[in-house]
Amino acid sequence: MFDRHFAVWPEQVPRELELPATNLYHNITVSALRYPKHPAIHYYGSDISYRELQDETERLAGYLQKAGVQSGDRVLLYMQNSPQYIIGYFAILRANAVVVPVNPMNRTAELAYLIEDTQAPVALCAQELSDFVAPHIGESSLREVIVSAYSEYVKNPTDLPLPEAVTEPATVDTAKGVTRWQDALNAQLQPGPLTAGPQDLCVIPYSSGTTGNPKGCVHTHHSVMATTVYGAAWVNTQHSCIHLVSVPMFHVTGMQSCMNSTLYAGGTLVVMTRWDRKVAATLIERLKVNTWRNISTMVVDMLSDPDIDKYDISSLKGIGGGGAAMPAAVAAKLQEKTGLTYMEGYGLSETISATHVNPPQASKAQCLGIPFIGVDSRVIDVETLKEVEPGVTGEIIMRGQQIFQGYWNRPDATEEAFVELDGHRFFRSGDLGYYDEEGYFFLVDRVKRMINASGFKVWPAEVESLMYAHPAIQEVCVISTPHERRGETVKAVVVLAAGKENTSEQDIISWCHENMAAYKCPQMVSFADSIPKSPTGKLMWRHLQDLEWGRA
Question: Which residues of the chain does CATH 3.30.300.30 include?
């Protein structure tokens, strides 16, 4: 068992923690019993209490069972952040079925693959996405789609600028196989007994993957409960938690660090359907938001707003996230503005969120943190699969209660994803990193993202982190580009900060040569108005790299 990090272990957190032997849905039941009138969800000025949340999940679950959903069936959940997402998630579990969270950027062909792979009989869908799923009704397994407009849950007038999708009135066309969300609730059907237990399937998030079709990561109620409970224990989440949810809940960070841990503690979720830095700052100020788990690019965007000092965000007591390292320059600005240290963590779809988190009292910058409650993590040589020493870069592996059961219908891929070490089965993350003498883990890059420039290994994430210290750079994404002599070399796609439009390509290249090893320096720089991001806020480096090599 890796124990090097126990010297910096948070005093109030147990190293091992027995998990509730229940279905995840019991968390809603318990919080509704304890705090029936307390707001579980705040949505652009409108509240839903825990009693209302439980009532609507029960009624929707009853309808799902009437629609033929059986225990263990997979049900697609295809919508952006909204009250309906949370209600739908728990209604599926209450029906003893399995949630399949779907990226709302997916379209018709991608949905066809997911329906075929999971054999889902029913989908819960947002109105603006219904045209993409409707063609599949009656084909393969899909029999029915239950559709809702986000506006149905904005029940009070608001002065907040709403995303276009949230302003759309409900205009659901009840064609064959399409049911209105409100009609499903109004049927007032009650579900049968809750029979799914800790070892039954709970959620199958699909990993984005690097090649081929995405793979479904099979999680039980036990593995999902693990990061739900561990996350709450790590930062002492209480009923008083008011959590800004700006990362997508279809992604495991939003699902676990935001939604499930907060509901487990009986706190309030302040839900945003789309990211808007001014709306986020307004919500923090008005609602006294005290917790914000996010993607570092959101903090970069908020703090780059010229009007940020007009907002009072002093209620924030805990801020952190994962997905991408927090640039040191931005972390310093956050510290200056709020007095808070950005607490970084690390996890994957296969681990249903965190396996490593920084200790709240001893966070290190641009660091994954230490192994989480009950997690044994090591670093191995990619070729020999032997464990390496502190400071040596290799592949990060881990074992713990949150590790998935395997890939859905992919036994070969499942076998490849694990390695045996010291008589134990460890999950291979596919991420390169190292740990220091104190047991803190650091990410170098994805195994597949490395740039090999004339034999020199360049890790784009490291170069990006260094470049954020340039005063003219607001955002940067480092990719490889073909090179006649080196095979490939380093290129930086840069978004300039406001007022720095006169900065030239050569200015940035020259600065890089002054501040990092020559082989890491971008040989080329291109400027862009923005850098494409995934729904989770991660820079879409692969998209930019594919475009670059396509042009070549």
Answer: 449-551
